[in-house]
Amino acid sequence: SMSSRQTETPLLSLRDICLSYGKRVILDHTSADFYPGSFTVIAGESGCGKSSLLYILGGLLKPDSGQYLFRGRPVYRWLGEWGLSRFRKKNIGFLFQDFRLLPFLTVEENVRFPVLFSGVRMGKSKIQQRLKQLGIAHRAKAYPHTISGGEAQRTALARALLLEPPLLLLDEPTGNLDRDTEIAIVDLLLELQREGLTLICASHSEYMMAHADRVMVLAGGKLSLKAVARKRSRMA
User: Fold this and answer.
1) Nearest CA to 60 among 38, 42, 79?
2) How far apart are the C-alpha atoms of 68 and 34, rounded to whole Å?
3) Which of 37, 79, 91, 233 could be joined to 83 by an S-S link, Cβ 3.0–4.6 Å?
4) Which spans in the chain are helix H?
5) DSSP code of residue 145
6) What b/e sequence results for 24-41 when a residue is b if at least 16 CB atoms lie within 10 Å of its CB, and e otherwise?
7) 214-219 β-sheet, strand order
8) pLDDT classification of 236: cutoffs 50, 70, 90
9) Taking the model in full, what pTM does it have?
10) Are 215 and 40 in contact (CB under 8 A)?
11) How far is 212 from 190, CA to CA, in rounded Å?
12) φ, ψ for residue 87 (rounded to 5)?
């Protein structure tokens, strides 16, 4: 409940974030708090800067000014490229719209990919468990060109969650998927949220907005709260 929220520390905070490309202002003294275990949808016109905002949150894009705090610590102020890379590995799961699967690796190898070079020991059973949870265990040995859009989405999701980050950032995750697949993916996200994951998702989807805890609209470089008709999921 929101009242108990006031005493809770945000997982991440934006404080007066500014970002411009040339003369185009993307973020204009933008501030927001995101609490642990919350599900926020960022809405807004195409090109309004939703992806840039996610890149900042993901440790991929340094803002021109302002502070990004993760668990109370400034992310961009002290961390060089190596530190940011470690920050991302430890804290961020990223689901891009185009999934970015490697065509020459199987589903299981794509999921395992982040640990191949990280030196992290990862038991096979842990990966199997995640594949099962996401409904793609039977596709483990398949290659990306033989699987459906929904299965590719789940593969990318399994990969993003492999190192169990506290934060999952999603960029238009259901933009190219049919309605049934979208419903299944949202159910899955709500299940992950119940496990304690914090979700921030750029999306145009009314369905996704109706199932998030809150919707923020990015317009004119500012984030504002939007009232949304709630349709609680069948699972809640």
Assistant:
1) 79
2) 11
3) 79
4) 2-5, 50-57, 81-91, 107-116, 124-133, 149-160, 179-194, 206-211
5) G
6) eebbeebebebbbebbbb
7) 92-95, 167-171, 198-202, 39-43, 214-219, 222-226
8) very low
9) 0.88
10) yes
11) 9
12) -55, -45
